Amino acid sequence: MIVGVLAAGQLGRMMALEGYPLGLRFRFLEPKNDAPASWLAETIEAPYTDPAALQRFSDGLCVATYEFENVPVESAEWIAERVPFYPPPAALGAAQDRLEEKWLFQRLSIPAPSFKAVDSLSDLQAAIEEIGLPGVVKTRRLGYDGKGQSVIRERAQVESVWESLGNSALIYEQFVPFDRELSIIAVRSRHGEIACYPLVQNEHREGILRVSTAPAPDVSPELRAEAEEYARRILEAFEYAGVLTIEFFQRDGALFANEIAPRVHNSGHWTLDGAVVSQFENHLRAIMGLPLGRADAIGHSIMLNLIGAIPPREAVLAVPGAHLHLYDKEPRPRRKVGHITLCGDDPAELRVRAGAVAEFIKGAVCPS
Ligand code: AMP
After folding, report:
1. What is 105-128 written as a DSSP string?
2. Lowest CB count within 10 Å: 5, 9, 43, 290, which one?
3. Residue with CA closest to ligand 1 atom 8
């Protein structure tokens, strides 16, 4: 049984590593050469829009999925007409456009920062008038890891921000002075079964995730139930199958949805070592219509991202309980090249060990 995956990055690589024990084979379609998953399985190296490549990719698959959010929706739809394709292309489309994403939150009564669509300098000025300062200007499409966005704190910045981002369609949204950032990873199977991992606390620098603490500390049962309810609404709205991530801001005990990722997610990497069944395995179970595995955490985990540099393997592995995951990527500035997960029963002791590992990691952020 062959699972087809659009894109062959580290998420696809980890998906394949978790899928082999289930007796699955994989085939990737990826425009770049030497992609992290390409060492593990057949990889068709071609643009996502190449009709012959799409045909070759789809032939004989039992199911198809994607691991990169910016694959063209048209390619997803083309495949979905021929083989079961999950998560549904409509969810992919909503996640690719920040305006559609905000409308989705509105439609499903999920609290989110106030926003306005911006297509001109005068739209931007009107949005600031209505929503106030500070605010964040974001490109509607193709923004990730902090790219394509800019915070406006005072009016004097408006024109220069417009000059740098104004050649794309934009949104302006309220800046949320959050207490912390949280995410939920939820999964729904083709048969409607849903499982949710515990809320995770995430810390970013320069728009890139640096560290996740799982389960997030100080989460009341009500807060968890609220996040799970929002996830359920989105999963059911799309008749979704697969893993879905929602990123939230928490402020004064309230959640505001920032964005969704209709795929396995960096803030769920800890589940490889710290949950009963990982997000990758559960994604595969879900899209194949198999029973879902338990999404409970086993104790506590801290995941540290490796950005732009690979620390000495020996030093990391000498720290008790450190799990090293390298993606076989050439280090470059701002590039995610791997992650380290530490697991344990005592959160305070775990933070000490994470601090020891952080010593070896360039630009590491210790969990707060
Ligand atoms: P995003 O690409 O939307 O996930 O944004 C990347 C990071 O920028 C987020 O994880 C936040 O740390 C920050 N950020 C984005 N939008 C806002 C906002 N409306 N208010 C405050 N911080 C934000």
Report:
1. HHHTT-----EEEE-SHHHHHHHH
2. 290
3. 207
Give 243 Cα–ligand 1 centroid separation in angstroms: 22
Question: Is-contact 354 361, C-beta < 8 A?
Answer: no
User: Is 269:243 a contact under the CB 8 Å cutoff?
Assistant: no
Q: Which residue has the tokens 């789809």?
A: 58
Q: Which of 258, 265, 365, 368 to mutate to test the pocket of ligand 1 (most atoms within 8 A of CB)?
A: 258
State which of 114, 136, 305 you would mutate to test the pocket of ligand 1, scoring each by most atoms of that ligand within 8 A of its C-beta. Answer: 136
CATH fit for domain 180-363, picks 3.40.50.2300, 2.120.10.30, 3.50.50.60, 3.30.470.20:
3.30.470.20
Q: Which atom of ligand 1 is nearest to the CA of 145?
A: 2
What pTM value is reported for the model? 0.97
CATH T-level fold of 2-85: Rossmann fold (3.40.50)
Strand partners, 118: 170
Q: Does the CB atom of residue 136 touch ligand 1 within 6 A?
A: yes
The fourth-level CATH superfamily of domain 114-174 is ATP-grasp fold, A domain (3.30.1490.20)
